[in-house]
Amino acid sequence: MAVGAFVFPDKAKLNFFSATDLLNPTNTFKITLHTSAWTPNNSTNEVFADATNELSTANGYTAGGITLTGVALTQTAGVVKFTSAAAVWTASGGSIPAWRTAVVRAVGTLNGKVDPIVGYFLGDSAPADVPATTTGNTLTITPNASGIMSAT
Known about the structure:
Order of helices and strands: HEEEEEEEEEEE
Number of helices: 1
Largest sheet: 4 strands, antiparallel
Strand content: 25-35%
Structural class: mainly beta
Shape: globular
Strand order of the largest sheet: 2-1-6-9
Distance between the termini: 28 Å
Oligomer: single chain
Number of strands: 11
């Protein structure tokens, strides 16, 4: 299945340019999974509290998400890239439930914003739910070779 495009909510775009230091690679970034009961609002979603219906802690998934590792902000030949290593969950003791949207956020308070959202994407561009990950299997989200985001 093809994932959806990474979406930068309007307020995240504003935060990129308002001295929030949102993409500083020394920040802690997390990725969370949310059910189809949450419909992202590109005009108003700004902080993690705006992202509802996250999966509950169970079977290899921990509410609050997984910390992204290998976070880097680079510039090569006029292209700026923000990326990380793959995020991996392993289902154990039961299935990690189906999910629809993944959210990337910075952890902490940046310029008065608590846990600002960097962006989000649909796990399946159809859109449809990504099926449950059954016990013993891994759920891996790997950034595109161009990064989580890039700009020229």
